[in-house]
Design a protein that fits this description.
Blueprint lengths: L2 E6 L11 E4 L9 E6 L10 H16 L11
Antiparallel strand pairs: 1-2, 1-3
């Protein structure tokens, strides 16, 4: 199973490709935030862009609800 990661540092807006670190390795300590995914799921089904967008929307909801923070991250 191949992995892909998109990482970005705090303060960058992500409007330029150069704002991101794109790789296939495991996460590193060199970036502040990362979205990492395999190219196929646990049953070897290929993940689609739609699958990734659904996951990002779910992550967004979790962040907005403060459900994943012991201490809220702030505004």
């Amino acid at each position: 199973m191949a992995g892909i990661s998109l990482a970005i540092n705090h303060g960058l807006d992500g409007f330029r490709v150069s704002d991101f670190t794109i790789g296939t390795a495991t996460p590193t300590g060199g970036t502040d935030m990362e979205f990492r995914f395999n190219t196929s799921d646990q049953n070897s089904n290929v993940l689609t862009k739609k699958d990734l967008l659904i996951a990002l929307e779910a992550i967004t909801r979790a962040i907005q609800s403060d459900a994943i923070f012991i201490t809220p991250a702030g505004p």
